[in-house]
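Everyone, study these two lines:
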Amino acid sequence: MGPHPAVAAIRLAVRRVLNDILDDHGDVPDDHGRTPGRAPDERPPSPLVLAACSGGADSMALASALAFEAPRLGVRAGGVTVDHGLQAGSDVRAAEVVLRLRELGLDPVESVAVSVGRGGGPEAAARDARYAALDAAAERHGAVAVLLGHTRDDQAETVLLGLARGSGIRSLSGMAAVSGADGRYRRPFLQLDRQTARKACMVQSLSVWDDPHNADPAYTRSRLRHEGLPALEKALGKGVVEALARTAQLSRDDADALDAWAGRAAAGVRDADGRLECAGLYALPPAVRRRVLRRAAIEAGAPAGSLFARHIEEVDRLITGWRGQGAINLPGKVVVRRQGGRLVIRQG
């Protein structure tokens, strides 16, 4: 008798990602255990993959699937939990997660305490601190990848948050299945719903921790999860989450194509001094031109996370609505002004 369908689904998702990681990092043994390009008695080093685990249902399901699949593919599997220090007893919770991960057979396993700042709001600050800790853990242990337990429901929420910000098609593309430096972060569960992960934990008798912040209406994502999405499903019927996840993938494909176009176009609208020529920019389609402007602003020092569509629209008016207006101030103390038919973009 095979595993429960929910368990089988999460294991299959993780197995596929591990196979992708093996394809991307190092040699893959053939059916006889030999590795092309190596001597018959020379074993390739086993890559290490970490599961980021908060102790919640999604990440516990992820950790259990990684612990099951990794040895079968010749991959070492570890885990890391991040203690944000935002709740009383968070250190005790982190220690319990470490114990659970070790009981699954993961090694190495560690808890990392972080200090959460205030930049960009509490949710963004916690996210920044978490990813910085995961990056450091991956470097410290020499891990080739870190698995994240984001589900299709998380993807739908991310798309709606992007829509509310009005930040353009890139925000609607949600979370990528592969992201980070050298494809460090992998999200195996973007095609699985949250209930599948919770069911997998239940049938395996895995203890899970429900973060009270996920039900706290003070947080935007929590309100969206418990009020916004249910209201949409009531008004539009079931299938909203699946439709939003499809929107994310379609938007990502479009955004990637436009980004590639903008990358090629940028070289053709720069003069010998590297300044952007307004006439050349004007001739570009608006979606491409704004990408060129955004990239130039970031290269000049504007923080990508603080650079919104309204900022780029103001810069764009120096091209399309030139009336002799003054300089545009962007985040990161970047100043954009038009001089002699060129855009000068630099930190003031």
Notes: Confidence is low (pLDDT under 50) at residues 28-34. The longest strand covers residues 76-83.
